[in-house]
Structures are given as structure tokens and as C-alpha cells.
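Quarterly update, task 2.4: 5-hydroxymethyl-3,4-dihydroxypiperidine-bound model.
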Amino acid sequence: MNHQNTTRPFLWGAASAAYQVEGGWRADGRGLSKWDVFTNGERITEKVVGAHHTGNVAINTYDPVQYRNDIALMRDLGLNAYRFSLSWPRILPDGTGAVNTAGLDYYRRFVDDLLAAGIAPIATLYHWDFPAGLFDRGGWHNRDSIDWFRDYAAVVFEALGDRVDTFVTLNEPFIDLFLMDLIAENARSGEREPFAFTSEQYGRQAPGMHNLLLANAAAVGEFRRQGLSGMVGIALPLYPMIPIDGEDAGDIAAAAQLDGVINRWPLDAVLKGTVPDDVVATLGAHNPAFAIPEADRALIAANSVDFIGVNYYAPMFVETDESGPLGMAAGANPDEVKAFNGPVRPEALHGLLLRLRDDYGNPPVIITENGAGFGDIDEVHDGDAIHDPLRTDYLRRHIDAVLKAKAEGADVRGYLVWSLFDNFEWIQGYTRRFGMVHVDFETQTRTPKDSYAFYRDLIAAQP
Ligand code: IFM
């Protein structure tokens, strides 16, 4: 592990992803991703939110006039870091082979404009927009995906490694495979409710998840091979697991098992270089073909990351439930106020950061996503102002939790809000707003909300 940049100031930033913000889906030679197909062809948003939403235009940040205005808002906010993702099919329209120079030029310009504004770029290589043609060949289930991704990473590192010093290989592999792909599959086939998963589906996704961890290792290896001086990490969706009945042995065991599948598996792989065999057994019970060859273990062992990106929104409350995947149900206490992504529990983020400190050798951590949407109750339009007190309170309490863990020795290097702007929220389309800045999706007008002013003042008050 390369613990560089210890002298860099704490990063106060925000995060986004290409498909959720860029638009320009056919511009300048961009190829298609699986999400273009999901939204334009099979129209999965109709099955989930009853409306046909796509990322074809999104919030239009492929347009340089638009994104330069957005960078001005970032500067006024006082951000010193901005996390964005690169669209794989914008750079390699077929996913492999010929490079689309116009796509790379777009990212070079965007990065240069961020740097000129004093904002450090944090570039994610993959945030779910898998090239459509390669998805048809099995996506992450095809072992060739490891080479496809390493070759794509090589192109990006060569093109941007001179100006980006922090790369994230993959965003939330578990959510990509076990949530989004399964929802899309259920919605498209119509065989079951979009959110109803089975143990067999989980077993089927397991080799894909393993391939994602190998792809991460291969990209980290490529980063080292090119001798780049920055840091490379991965952004994991981490969910502290809380047994619904803390006295019930079944619920306790279910919480531990789900922790293994979602948290411990990728954390062990990218930080310790090991594969937890109990997790392989849990998933292998639903897919006898799932096994880990020795050569794979060696690749993982040789390529741990420089930092861990923590995407934290909420804990999961877990209980045994024979009808749920892996015999479990995970959700939230129905009596709590919930943000879109779960109950508001900043203390669980604090605990998670101490777990990384204590169980994983205190790796450098960047909170690569944290934020909330609460729906209309938290989007109160009042003349030119938009009041979002619940989001503001959420951010304040989670930042306090992060700073407390940092003061207790956790090696936290930065905090990035999801998100600066309202944007395309995957299967929920434009119906879920996470931004500190409101976006009118018809006119692309940006209006800062109260949370923007809160975050600006908080950043300005830092020593
Ligand atoms: O919008 C998503 C993002 O793409 C991945 N992490 C969670 C966010 C909010 O749901």
C-alpha cells in the first residue's frame, strides 16, 4: 500500500457519476452503455417509478458551458476536491480496442478546468456504465472482463495520470451487480417485482463480484506498472449491520452473514489481499460452480489499494427470513425518519471508521459518498430559496461523526458529499433528489439550497 499524500490538506468535496450527470449520450462518438440500453430500450424506470426517464441529457455536464458554470458553483462553495466518473464507452466506444480521442479530450479539459479552479480531481474509472456490447457478452460474468477493464484503465492512466493524482477503480461493485443488475433483470423480464431477489440470483452474481475484485486488482497492478505517483483506491458501499433483535441468535447470525457478503468480502480483498472462505461457502451454497482458484488469490494478494473509499448512507437492520435471499431480510425500522437510502444513523458511520482503523490496519480513507434525499418534505421552495433542513441536519451530523473518528485516530483524508447537484438516480430516474443544488431538469437551471450554504460555511470555518 502506498500511503502518499499525507501532507495534502483534508479534502472537502462532492461526488458525481458520468451517467447521472453528463448527458451527451450520442455526442462525439460515444458508444452505448448498459444503462443506455436499460433506459432507452427496455425502459426499466417505467417499471419502478412509472415514468420513462433516461440519462440521455441528464444535467448536461457534457456541455462545457454548463460544466464551467458548475465549476464556478464548486469554487464558490469552497470545494478543494471533486469526484466524477469517466464514461467507459465515451473513451472506448466498443469497450475495447479503438480509443475515442474526443472522449478523452473532454475529460482532459474538464480536469484542467477543475485544476485551474483549485479543485483536485478524483476520477472514478467505472461507475456502472458498462459498455453495452461487452455487457451482451456477459459483462462482469465473463472472465475476459478483467482484461477489458485493465486495458481501459491503462488508457485512462496514460491519458490522465499526469494531472489526476487520485483514482478510484470501481464504484460500489456490490450494488452494481446485486442490486442494479438484478432490479433491471427483474423489471425487464417481468417475472417478479423489481426489488424481489432470490438466493439463486445471489449465487449467480457471486462469480461476477469476484471478477470485479480481480478487475480492481488488475487495474491497481496497471497503476503500479505505469509508475504513477498518486493514489489508487476503490469506493465500496459499506453498511454497518444491526440485528433487528439484538438478543436473537438468528438475527445476530444473519447480520454477521450479510456483513460478510457486503462488507468483509471486498474489504478483505482490497485491504488484506485475502478472500473470506466463509463468504464463498455462503454464496457457493447457491452456486456450486463458485470457487476461487489459487491464481486469483495471488492476483488479489499482490494488489491492495492505497486508500479505501467509503460510500456510507445508512446501516442495515437485519433479521432471519426464510423467504429472503440467503434466508435474510434487510431494511429499516419503519418508525424511523428515513432518507431515500435508509435510516439516519451517523453513529454507525463513526463505528465503521473505527472498524477500519482497528480491523484493517488504519488505511487512508476518503468518504467518497455521503448524503441524503428525503423527498418533497425536504424541498421547500420559498421565493428564490429552497429549504432542505433534513439534508442539512444529515450532513452536519455525519461530518461531526467523521471528524470525531478522525480525532480518535482514524486516517480519514477527505469527505465528499453525494451530491452537489440533483441528478439521474438510476432506476428512480429524476424522482429522487440528492443535491445541495436544485436542478430544474427542463431548463437546467441551478439553484443552491440551504445545505449548500451550510456546507460552504462549514468549509470556510475549517482551520
Ligand atoms: O446515486 C447513487 C450513486 O450512484 C451510488 N451511491 C448511492 C447514490 C445515491 O443513491
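Highlight for this quarter: Residues 17, 20, 172, 311, 341, 369, 418, 425, 434 surround 5-hydroxymethyl-3,4-dihydroxypiperidine (CB under 6 Å).
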